Amino acid sequence: NAGVTQTPKFQVLKTGQSMTLQCAQDMNHNSMYWYRQDPGMGLRLIYYSASEGTTDKGEVPNGYNVSRLNKREFSLRLESAAPSQTSVYFCASSRTSNQPQHFGDGTRLSIL
Amino acid sequence: GNSVTQMEGPVTLSEEAFLTINCTYTATGYPSLFWYVQYPGEGLQLLLKATKADDKGSNKGFEATYRKETTSFHLEKGSVQVSDSAVYFCALSDQRNTDKLIFGTGTRLQVFP
Fold first, then answer.
1. For chain B, what is the total number of helices (H) and then of strands (E)?
2. Mean pLDDT, to the nearest integer, of B27-51?
């Protein structure tokens, strides 16, 4: 029962470097999401994909891009990392957009 | 816009104590309401949910009742255990745009033996 798998679990980058966070789900879910979690701010939605082939901006999309590669995979890319993007990133999926979301274990990203 | 407000933590309790974590919301229409739990080093897990007014969600001894008149969804448990130590998030889904969950800032619960 893998559920939602995120890689890597930890990463340290230098300012200006690029990086792609990977997410895959094996539950045949249609909708997938990327959040960031910062102290005192809860989770904020970066981008989401309601179905394969579609993506939409969330609350804090600036500095990020996403790709819904297929139904299983939804990647998040930082083209030019900035210290303000230091955070814990969570991927989630749900069967449809109005069903409960299942979360991965997170990627802890530090940008120096 | 829609928002969720949770009590600030940490909440510190002894084992077997009664737990209440307050959650209030602002939303138009009739959102669905959720409580998620995050154990150390893990992602969020759905704890319980309620989809309409006066519904009571329950799971693992936790309960929350959807109160539209007070726009609240307070989490309660009659007797907490050390293993309940975690961060608890209240969330709502926007009825008009059910793709989006709006989370509160989370409340850390610490239970001591």
1. 0, 12
2. 91
